[in-house]
Each structure stands twice: as structure tokens, then as C-alpha cells.
Amino acid sequence: MDTDRSVGVCGCRAVMPVTIHNGRKIMHKENLSASEALKKLKEGNQRYLSATSNPGDVSPAIRHETCENGQSPYAIVITCSDSRVIPESIFTAGIGELFVIRVAGNVMDKHQLGSVEYAAGHLGCNLVVVLGHDHCGAVDAAINHKPGGYVKYITDEILRAIGSEKDPLRASCLNVERAVSVIKESLDIKEGEGPAVCGAVYHINSGEVEFLDQ
Ligand SMILES: [Zn+2]
After folding, report:
1. Which one, of 111, 94, 95, 100, lies nearest residue 76 by Cα?
2. How far is the CA of 43 from the centre of ligand 1 (A)?
3. What mean pLDDT is predicted for residues 158-182?
4. Do 76 and 125 touch, CB atoms closer than 8 A?
5. Domains, in order of start, for the chain
């Protein structure tokens, strides 16, 4: 797999990645800018607040179209595996719109970083959102329990983010902020270069997404 990036007339970073997949060249549609993608996420969340089902496009037509022409998701979303947190529903998105990375506690490790690097570098995503949430079992486990087994890898990472914070919502915010920092530092993303990386918290009762530092 390879990517050929063209430079737009304004000299901005390429928005039309070409992916070579199994010897076949796939020209992706023009990706949204970070600010356009953020606006779309916010609008999608507003629609979700009064929705009773997900009106995102999952039709046979979009399946065929994305199968033939490849995917051009407009945002990368890293979020928790919690069954109450469904990114495509939360942002009213359908097939081909969001590149979603899910892991309990939305913690970052090399596999998640590789996924972000791939989607930003090869699919042309210009926005990365780390989406934590309230009432998070992983955050609660880190604050109040001492889990063993593989769960400990997750809670240890959360503890590195939250320190001695005991308030669950503040801890979730700190955990999101750490993931944002890890992404920027690990992928060497400078301000104004590469994809924009931001944090957000999803409120599972109201359905509202609160973007941090906005
Ligand atoms: Zn969670």
C-alpha cells in the first residue's frame, strides 16, 4: 500500500490521497479540512440528540460505492468500547465517514497509534478526535479498584493520566487529554501541521458531545 500526495493550488497539504491496494489504484474523494470535519461532527451530534435511530447512510448504494472507490473518512475517532458509546450514531454517520478506533478506556498504545498514522497518512483524514465518556467503567476501575490480568494494562495507562484524581468526570477528561498528548508527541504532530487532534467527552445520558478546549 502506498500513498501519492498531490499539493493543492493553495500549497496546502494534499487532500487527494491515492492508495495502491492489491495493485489497484484508488483515488479518494477530497477529504474535508479539520475545521469542516469538526463542524460536521458537531452538526451530526445535534441531529443525534433528538434521533431515535441512526439516519446515517448504510444503503446498498453506499456499500457498492465505497467498495468500488475506497473509503474517504472525514475524521478519526478514538473512543471507548463501552456499548453505550456508538460513534456512528453519536455523530449521525454512515458507511465510509468515520475511521473508528475502539479500546476500553480509549487508551493509546502502539496499535492505536499505528491506526491513527494509517488513517491520517493513507486515507487523508485531517481531524483526530479522542472521545472519552462519563460513567466509564475503565476509569472507575482505575480510580476504585485494582484489577489484575490484562485489564491492569488499561487501568495503569489511565492512572498515568489521572494521577490522584477521584472525580470520575474530571478523570475522564484528564484521560482524554493524555491520549491527545500521546498522539501529538508520538506522531510528532506540530501545531498547524498534519491532522488536528482534539479531545471530547460524550455524556451518555444526554447524548451530548462536549469538545474540550473549544
Ligand atoms: Zn468507557
Report:
1. 100
2. 23
3. 98
4. yes
5. 32-211 (3.40.1050.10)
